[in-house]
UniProtKB/TrEMBL annotation:
Protein name per Swiss-Prot or TrEMBL: DEAD/DEAH box helicase
Domain of life of the organism encoding this protein: Bacteria
Helicase C-terminal domain ranges (all copies): 361-547
Key words of the record: ATP-binding, Helicase, Hydrolase, Nucleotide-binding
Pfam families named among the record's database cross-references: Helicase_C, ResIII
EC annotation from Swiss-Prot or TrEMBL: 3.6.4.-
Source species of the chain: Blautia acetigignens
Any one GO molecular-function label of the UniProt entry: hydrolase activity
PROSITE patterns membership: HELICASE_ATP_BIND_1 (PS51192), HELICASE_CTER (PS51194)
Length: 556
């Protein structure tokens, strides 16, 4: 039997018993199928099983590189004679030093770095724990040409700035993304996975000399872009960094198989003990929003996603003026306690809130208070699934757009406008403008930042101390990990060197009169408790819309 290990593992000449064990290992239940079945949704078009291996034309098995340890154990158990060859790129020795001693590696960071140096795999550490610094120290110790993979242009520049501040000998950092194709001094190259997926020629050049691949926010790895791109590199070392390995779609197995197992997890308590995180106070504000008959949805936090009833709930919630006024006034009242971030799933809701808040600020004497909105960019149209051809054609006629049959998904889809032409032009934020806004936030020139999913990962503004989560959100549940909420609240938990006595407060807006949204509120409480945050008790009744004197009771 022959095993050839490079960017993946090729196994040929295998005995049948070994093959059967490998196939059994790498054939898993499809979480999407199980979830649809659990929610009593149609399962047609969804594979019941997933095969995490392929066959080459000559019958060889092609396996993910993270399966190497398991394969070795299977071969040992079956006493099969094997020739195991490796052909991976180690890369030439490069000098990243000297290390900037202003960035001392803390006691809780050493074990993670040490474990990554021993073998390939994943390091797990909470938001605000210094994952990027640990990653920089790792590549400093390895001393080989490194590709740092991320998924947003903002993270590219944040990572570059961190590299320049920690690695005094890094030289000119390469950037592949945001329209830039620069290999720099070929020591450290930071790339967006989207750019590499779109430009195979860059991948081919990098494969020749990159000896280390660091995958930032590694829980994204199971996505098609990360799988197709990162799996091409025959680098000897590949590691991942993430705040949590759990994924909403339960496909973290692909991450383990593509990168390696979790090697070390930094406990959140270590950061509290080391005084590296600010433990926020969570305040719940109860709205008066209601929605029709909620008997069937009570407590079901798994409702949502593509569910049309849930989408209608959100639409009506975003249009509700009483709720908008309540949220806006709370945001204004919190201004005197420090710089705020307001997080919403909807770009439109961000701008509606900003307009309302700006008006209240003027009326209530906060004339020097500046607000801004950042988001990842607007798409004028998206393709939405229709119930059938007739509905697709009718909707396309209403929208003045088009419809088509998606043969792969076996569904009719209609081109649907997300924004009016006026909204699209008025609300679009260019990459240059977005960077200017974020820079102004870091300089303290923006008092209230309204943001969408951009703020979930990697947004590093230590001066933020007040947070508002203003749209419904799931927390911990049967099919959810509360990752989005955990990452968002992490934005206000970072220590601020300019404010050593920083206090933080997080406002959670609860729509307790709507069954599904009330269930989500309970699931969010589980996240807060898991993070070690002491919570006020659940109210016996949610009839009171506003907690009088709420902000005045906060001790700063």
């Amino acid at each position: 039997m022959h095993v050839y290990e490079s960017n993946n593992i090729r196994v040929s000449g295998y005995p049948l018993p070994l093959k059967l064990k490998i196939v059994d290992d790498l054939t898993i239940d499809n979480p999407a199928y199980l979830r649809a079945k659990y929610q009593r949704r149609p399962t047609w078009g969804i594979d019941q099983k997933l095969q995490l291996f392929t066959y080459d034309n000559d019958g060889s098995l092609i396996l993910p590189r993270g399966y190497a340890d398991r394969l070795y154990n299977l071969i040992t158990e079956t006493t099969t004679s094997v020739k195991w060859d490796k052909e991976q790129v180690e890369g030439e020795t490069v000098d990243f030093g000297p290390w900037n001693e202003n960035f001392q590696i803390r006691d809780y960071q050493h074990p993670l770095i040490d474990n990554l140096l021993r073998k390939n795999g994943i390091g797990v550490s909470p938001a605000g724990s210094g994952k990027t610094i640990m990653g920089m120290r790792y590549i400093y110790e390895v001393g080989r040409p490194t590709l740092w993979l991320t998924h947003t242009r903002d993270l590219v520049y944040q990572t570059r700035d961190r590299a320049l501040s920690t690695l005094k000998g890094v030289g000119r950092v390469g950037i592949l993304g945001d329209g830039i194709e620069d290999f720099g001094d070929r020591k450290l190259i930071i790339a967006t996975v989207q750019t590499l997926k779109a430009k195979q020629r860059l991948v081919e050049k990098l494969k020749e000399f990159i000896g280390v691949v660091v995958i930032d926010e590694a829980h994204h790895f199971p996505s098609t872009q990360f799988l197709d791109t990162a799996a091409q590199f025959p680098a000897k070392r590949i590691v991942g960094l993430t705040a949590t390995p759990k994924r909403k779609d339960e496909m973290e197995q692909l991450m383990y198989l593509g990168i390696g197992p979790v090697l070390h997890e930094v406990p959140r308590t270590a950061l509290y003990k080391d005084d590296q995180l600010v433990l926020p106070e969570v305040k719940f504000i109860y709205t008066s929003f209601t929605y029709g008959n909620e008997d069937s949805a009570d407590g079901n936090i798994d409702a949502g996603g593509e569910d049309l009833d849930y989408q209608d709930i959100l639409y009506r919630l975003f249009e509700n003026e009483d709720r908008l006024n309540l949220v806006a006034q709370s945001i204004v009242d919190a201004v005197k306690y420090g710089q705020s971030i307001v997080l919403s799933e909807s770009v439109r809701y961000c701008f509606r809130l900003k307009e309302k808040v700006d008006k209240l600020l003027l009326e209530q004497g906060y004339r020097g208070c500046k607000t801004a909105v950042v988001h990842g960019g607007l798409t004028r149209y998206i393709w939405k699934v229709a119930s059938g051809k007739r509905q697709a054609e009718a909707l396309a006629a209403d929208y003045g757009t088009e419809c088509k049959y998606d043969g792969k998904a076996r569904r009719w889809k209609v081109k649907t406008p997300q924004y009016t032409e006026e909204e699209f032009k008025k609300w679009q934020v260019t990459k240059k403008k977005r960077q200017e806004i974020l820079d102004q936030c870091r300089e303290g020139k923006v008092n209230i930042l309204f943001a969408t999913q951009l703020a979930r990962e990697g947004l590093d503004i230590p001066s933020l101390c007040v947070g508002h989560t203003v749209t419904p959100k799931r927390g911990d549940g049967k099919s959810n990990t509360g990752l989005n909420l955990e990452q968002e609240i992490g934005r206000i938990m970072r220590k601020d060197p300019q404010n050593p006595d920083k206090k933080a407060v997080w406002f959670d807006y609860v729509d307790a009169s709507v069954g599904v949204l009330k269930g989500q509120y309970y699931s969010r409480r589980k996240v807060y408790k898991r993070l070690g945050i002491k919570l006020p008790s659940k109210p016996k009744s949610a009839e009171k819309d506003v907690i009088d004197g709420l902000l005045d009771s906060i001790k700063f």
